[in-house]
Amino acid sequence: MLQTSKPRYGEKAIQGLLAACGILSVLTTTAIVISLLGPTLGFLEVVPIGDFLFGVEWAPQFEPPSFGVLAIVVGTLNVTFWAMLFAIPIGLGAAVYLSEYASPRVRKTVKPVLEILAGIPTVAIGIFALTFILPEIIQPLWPGEFLGGASDKPFMALAASLGIALMVVPIIASISEDAMSAVPRGLHEGAYALGATRAKVAVRVIFPAALSGIVASIVLAISRAAGETMIVVIAAGSTPNLTMNPLESVQTMTAYIATTATGDIGTGTLDYKSVFAVGTVLFVLTLVMNAISIRLARRYREVYE
Amino acid sequence: MISSRRLAVIASAAVLAAGVSACGSSDDDATGSGSDLSGSIRIDGSSTVAPLTEAVAEQFESENSGVKVTVGTSGTGGGFEKFCAGETSISDASRAIEPEEVEACEKQGISYEEVRVATDALTVVVNPENPVNCLTVEQLGAIWGPDSKISNWNEVPGLKEEYDEELALFGPGTDSGTFDYFTEEINGEEGASRKDYNNVGENDNATVTGVEGSPGGMGYFGYSFYQENEDALKALEVDGGKGCVAPSAETAQNDEYVPLSRPLFIYPSAEALEKPEVKAFVDYYLDNVNEVAEVVGFIPLTEEQLEASKDAAAKLG
C-alpha cells in the first residue's frame, strides 16, 4: 500500500493560493455590496423608498428635487433595448456565417478583425456615435416625422444604442461562433447524411446544440449594454426622460452616476448618496438578469454525449 | 462648463509658466523660484471661484515647493462659515459677505478684506434669425421657470416682436455652477428650473449647435464661451430693471450687465496674512489673476479694479 511519507507543504500552499484567487472575487462582490449599502440606507432615510422606486421624475438637483428612479431605469432600458434589437440579429448572423458558411481562410481573417472591434475604447465609440452616426446616418435616413422626427436633436438615445450595438456585436458573434464550432462534428455529418440543407443544419441542429453558449453571449452583451457608461454620456445626453422613444435624449443610470460623481457635489450630501442608491438599483438589476440567464441556459440546453 | 474650467486649470498653468518667464520682471519676492517659504494655506468657499484659485495655487506651489495650498468647494456660504470660525486662511466667494457672516466673523475677532479677483458673466443666446433683441429678467423667468409651459416664442409675455417659432431650450448640467447661478438669478432660487429642456451636461458645444440649428433655439452659458462662438449665435440683451444691456467685457466689469454678471472675490484674513506664505500667495494671486482668469473662462479685472484689489490686500498685510 502506497503511503505518503512526508506532508506536501508545497501542494498545500498552491491549493491555498488558488482558493484565495477564487475567494477574492467573492470578497470583492461583498465589499461592493457593503460600500453601496451604507450611503443607500442614508439616502432612503430621507427619500421614502416608494417615491424612489416608483416615482417617474428624476430631478435630484432641481428645486424642489424629485427622486423617481424609474425615469433613469427606463433610460437604461431604452438604450439597451434598441441596441440589442440591432446587435442580436447581426451578431448571430455573423456567427452562423463564420461557423457554417465561411471558408477556413475567411474565418481566419474575419474573426480577429471582429475581435479588434470589441477592443475599441468606448469613448471613441461615443464620439463616433455623436459626430457621425447621429448626423450622417440617423438624421438623413430617418423617415420624416416618424416618432416625432430626428432632426434638431443634439443628443439621441438611438445614436448611443447604435454605438453600443457596434460594441457588443463582436461579443455575440465571437462567443456564439465558439459555441457553434464546438458542436460535435458527428451531428453535422449525421444531418447532412439525412439530406438536410446547410441552412437546416445551421438552424435546426447546430443552433439548438450551441444554445447555452449563444444565450450566454447575449446575456453578456445585455449586461455590457446596460452597464455601458461612456457612450451614453456622450451621445444620449443627460435629460432624464421616461420614454422608450429612441429619438429622445435620455439619461441612463450609469450616465447619472458618472456625471454626478464628477460634478460639483459635496461628499455626504443627498445628491452624493443618490449616486450610491442608483448604483444599488443597477447592481440588483444586473444580478437578477444574470440569475435569469443562468436558468434559461440550463433549461434550453440540449445535451449530447 | 465647470469641467471645462477645470481642464483650463491645466492649460492656465502652462500659460502662466510662459507668462511669468516671459515677463520675468515681477519684483515680488514670492515669485522668485527657490523660495524658502513653507507651510500650508487652507482655502474654501465658492465652487465658481475654485478653478481660478486652484490654477493660481498650482502655479504658486510649483514655484514654492514648501507650501501646500488646499482649495475646498463648500460653496460661498459654507466657506464663510469656516472662515469666520478661523478654520481657513482665505475664503472664495461669488458674492459679497452678508451681514450675518460679518457678525459671525466679528464675534471670533476675524478681520478681513474684500479682494475682487475676476468677473463672472453668463450669456443668453438665441438663433441669429430671431428678431428678439432683449428680454427682461421676468420674461426669462417666464420661459425658464419651474412651472413654465411656454413652448413658442409668441407665448412669451410682453414681447413686442412677432416670432412664431417653437422654443427649443438648451441648458447646462444641473451639477454645474452655471446652472446654479442662472436659476438663482432668473428663477429666484438655486436649482429652480423647468426640466423639459435639452440638458447638454458639460458639453456647451451642444448648446451652440442646437441653438444654431433651430430657429426658436435658446440657451445659456459663460460669457467667455460665447466670445468663441460670436458668429454662430446672437447674444440677448438683458433688462435687469435699468434697461436693456448687452453682455460684453465692459458691461460685466462695471456691473451694468445685471443680474447675469457678478464680481468674484477672495477674502483673506488679517491673521493669516501675517504668515509670510499667505502674504506671498495673495500677492502672487493678484499679480497673475488676469492672465489666469481668461484661460479659466472669466472676465479679467480692469486696471483700476486690479489696483483697488491690490490696495485692499495691502491694507491688511
Describe the SSE topology.
The complex is a heterodimer of chains A (305) and B (317).
Chain A: H1 9-46, H2 49-54, E1 58-59, E2 66-67, H3 70-101, H4 104-118, H5 122-141, H6 157-181, H7 185-193, H8 198-209, H9 211-227, H10 230-235, H11 253-261, H12 270-300
Antiparallel strand pairs in A: 1-2
Chain B: H1 2-23, E1 39-45, H2 50-63, E2 67-71, H3 75-84, E3 90-93, H4 99-107, E4 115-126, E5 134-136, H5 137-144, E6 168-171, H6 177-187, E7 198-199, H7 204-213, E8 217-222, H8 223-227, E9 234-235, E10 237-239, E11 244-245, H9 249-253, E12 261-268, H10 270-273, H11 276-296, H12 303-316
Parallel strand pairs in B: 1-2, 1-3, 5-10, 6-7, 6-8
Antiparallel strand pairs in B: 3-12, 4-8, 4-9, 4-12, 10-11
Could you give a quick summary of the protein structure above?
The complex is a heterodimer of chains A (305) and B (317). Chain A is mainly alpha-helical.
What are the salient characteristics of this protein?
heterodimer, A: 305 residues, mainly alpha, MetI-like fold, two-stranded antiparallel sheet, 12 helices, globular, B: 317 residues, alpha/beta, D-Maltodextrin-Binding Protein, domain 2, 2 domains, nine-stranded mixed beta sheet, three-stranded mixed beta sheet, 18% strand, elongated
Description:
Helices cover 72% and strands 1% of the residues of chain A. Chain A has 305 residues and is mostly helical. Chain A has a single domain (58-300), classed as MetI-like fold (Orthogonal Bundle). In chain A, a hairpin with a 6-residue loop joins strand 1 and strand 2 (66-67). The two termini of chain A are 36 Å apart. The mean pLDDT of chain A is 90. Chain B has 317 residues and is an alpha/beta fold. Chain B folds into 2 domains: 2-119 and 263-316, D-Maltodextrin-Binding Protein, domain 2 (3-Layer(aba) Sandwich), CATH 3.40.190.10; 120-261, Periplasmic binding protein-like II (D-Maltodextrin-Binding Protein, domain 2). In chain B, strands 1, 2, 3, 4, 6, 7, 8, 9 and 12 form a 9-stranded mixed β-sheet that branches. Chain B has a 3-stranded mixed β-sheet with strand order 5-10-11. Chain A binds chain B through residues 57, 59-63, 65, 151-152, 154-155, 233, 237-240, 249, 251, 259-260, 262-266, 271, and chain B through 2-3, 47, 73-75, 146, 168, 170, 173-177, 179, 183, 189-193, 195, 197-202, 206-207, 209-210, 213-214.
